[in-house]
Amino acid sequence: MMMMEYRRIKDQDKDGDVVEDDIEGLHGKPLSGVSVNNMASFGASSAYKSKWKLKSIVTLALTLLTSSQAILIVWSKRAGKYEYSVTTANFSVEALKCALSLAALGRIWKNEGVTEDNKLSTTWDEVSVYPIPAALYLVKNLLQYYIFAYVDAPGYQILKNLNIISTGVLYRIILKKKLSEIQWAAFILLCAGCTTAQLDPSSDHVLQTPFQGWAMAIVMALLSGFAGVYTEAIIKKRPSRNINVQNFWLYVFGMAFNAVAIFVQDFDAVINKGFFHGYSLITTCMILNHALSGIAVSMVMKYADNIVKVYSTSVAMLLTAVVSVFLFGFHLSLAFFLGSTVVSVSIYLHSIGKL
After folding, report:
1. What does the alpha-carbon distance between residue 303 and residue 45 come to, in Å, rounded to a whole number?
2. Of 74, 158, 160, 180, which is least packed with CB atoms within 10 Å of its CB?
3. 333-353 burial: b if 16+ Cβ within 10 Å, else e
4. How much is the pTM?
5. Residue burial 19-28, b: 16+ Cβ < 10 Å; e: rest
6. Which residue from 188, 153, 150, 156 is spatially nearest to 169, judged by alpha carbons?
7. Cα-to-chain-centroid distance, residue 301
8. Is the pLDDT of residue 89 over 50?
9. Hey, how many other C-beta atoms are within 10 angstroms of the C-beta on 32?
10. Mean pLDDT lowest for which of 236-240, 282-286, 304-308?
11. Beta partners for 78?
């Protein structure tokens, strides 16, 4: 269904044409002594620098937020278990993201007024595509909590790099975007790096993570990759549409699906103990982190792509490992160091191997 709905984005008008029209239309006279081509080049350069700056800011923000995600989840556990309901936590994340999107829209409406691209009212055809990624993110986010029964925070960040493989393959299949041979080689290195970082020479088990952890990680990678590519297709299908409007509808369906999850899984606990039972300051910080991370992800998809998103996740892996040394007494083994190095090299090859 997604292939039928997704349409390629039409090339926008060249900056040079826009600049030329503006110059010639200024008081009905062209500017003397100024080259239109030079002005067009300057305008294009300025637009490129502005877009690059925006991409850099949102990518850096996503990297910092992602690096602390796993740490906050592990930190929120008490005696090895979650005292709060993970379904209510996920619902709170979606509700907070929805509220932040509405607040951003309110500011835009106040400054710019309501336009065709920033109004919430829309057609069912546009809204009907959001339930699919919302459902995928629901399952992926729930698995994100349960996987910590089998892995630690640094190991989780290593396994999350499998998203690059699923994203790259789905990019090729769904969005028809070609990848170079160097990028495919980087994928193979990534698998090797993830495996090496999980080696446990002091145990009879070859890998530190048991089979259940790997199974959850692979399912999460597939869900995250498909949901990410699908969401990017939706967001870029109408590039002029305000990102906060697109986020709002995605998060509304996210709230609906998480409400169903609460009813199915934790209804009795919520009725008897309350919606926010077991919440702590760390839990609140974790929910805020997840909400801001989700918004940062959507902005990266809007102004960059999913490959940039998974790059930031891989860099976050290294930050998580360093912080875990001080918080949880995590030991940076030689296998982890070598695996992280291989993963970093694969990210570099993937970036320079673009067609």
Report:
1. 17
2. 180
3. eebbeebbebbbebbebbeee
4. 0.70
5. bbeeeeeeee
6. 188
7. 8
8. yes
9. 5
10. 304-308
11. 81
